Amino acid sequence: MDNRYYEDKNYHELSIPLFPGISFDYFWCDGTYEFRAPQKIKRSSNVMIINYCYCGSFEMIYNNGKILNRGAKDITLSSPDSMSAHSRIPQKTYEGISITLRFSEFPDWLTCFFSEQNIDFQKLMRRFRLEESSFFVPRTEELENSFDNLYRYMEEGRRPLLLAETLLLISKISLIGEEGKKEEEDYTSLMTDKVYRKVLKIAKEMEKSSNYSVPLADLVDREGLNYGDFQKVFFELFHMTPIQYRRNQKINEGAFLIQHTNKSITEIAFLCGYSNPSKFSSAFRQLMGISPLKYRSRHAVIK
Question: CA 33, 38, 39, 44: dihedral to nearest 10 degrees?
Fold first, then answer.
């Protein structure tokens, strides 16, 4: 089974077949990207996808107006039945991983293997109600370590370890109980409300670098919203606070500038709304896991 590569302008996909019916997919993008819409999605009750946003964010917009925003370090389960009509990458630096399980294509030996592990994928689909929408998996250090291992094994070309870690991850996912956070709210009526539309407009404004230094309260006041209501609705839509969303946006912009320009870290910090470069570096390390200088040495496009 050969690897498959797809590229469209600044968006890239690498698909690595692991077993019959199981593939490891790696996605990366330099710059924002809008997926073609409407998309014709082939529905299937025999496909489950494990998604992980390594860096940046991925946004899906459903026909009923519901939004799913998978931010950095978010883990979700999905299926083609719950895919959206439109999606986009709103931040300039994005990396993501997916494990696609087409269990109707499993050979007998693989079906037997999962059966011996008491893993029934049809039951998992029903447990997480994936025919309706995506399921947000509670974050744990154990799961994040698994995805970090997958990312590293993929980069290093260590296929046997990639195979083993994938099976281990599937086993961990199968043990998640009913306590996981499930997005069950009906957004159909809510998304027609002017408050929700205003919150979405504010989120778009927060993405603009020209607004990085504008206080959030000012952006909210422009739309005539109560700040407490804005916070509540924002969290329902994006699964993070406005402060977290803005920080992620700034650091993502910084990562893009570090990778694609020769600007100093001090200058980049200022462009990203930080008057103190050390605070920028601290926030960058917290979100990206390494310092801005180390990120530049590993990922710089311009040397």
Answer: 130
Give the 3-state secondary structure of residue 59: strand
Taking phi first (over 0 means left), then psi (-120 to 50 degrees means alpha), and beta for anything else, what does residue 157 get? left
The side-by-side arrangement of strands in the sheet containing 11-19 is 4-8, 11-19, 22-30, 93-102, 47-55, 75-78, 135-137
Write out pLDDT tens, residues 30-69: 888 988 755 445 556 789 999 999 888 898 877 666 677 8
Nearest Cα to 203, choosing from 88, 35, 288? 88
- Name the residue among 256, 250, 248 with its Cα closest to residue 299: 256
Q: What is the pTM of this model?
A: 0.73
Count of positions (residues) in the chain: 303
In degrees, rounded to 5, the angle at the alpha carbon of residue 139 between the alpha carbons of residues 135 and 142 is 125
Distances (CA, A) of 183 to 69, 92, 259: 12, 27, 35
Measure the CA–CA gap between 239 and 74, rounded to whole angstroms.
Answer: 10
Q: Which two tokens stand for residue 235?
A: 């969290």
**Cβ atoms of residues 270 and 280 within 8 Å:** no
Amino acid present at 201: K
State the DSSP code for 297. H
Cβ partners under 8 Å of residue 269, min gap 6: 254, 275, 276, 277, 279, 280, 281
- Could you report the per-residue pLDDT of 94-117, keeping only the tens digit for each? 999 999 999 999 999 999 999 999
Give me the phi and psi of 288, to 5 degrees please.
Answer: -95, -15
Is-contact 269 280, C-beta < 8 A?
yes
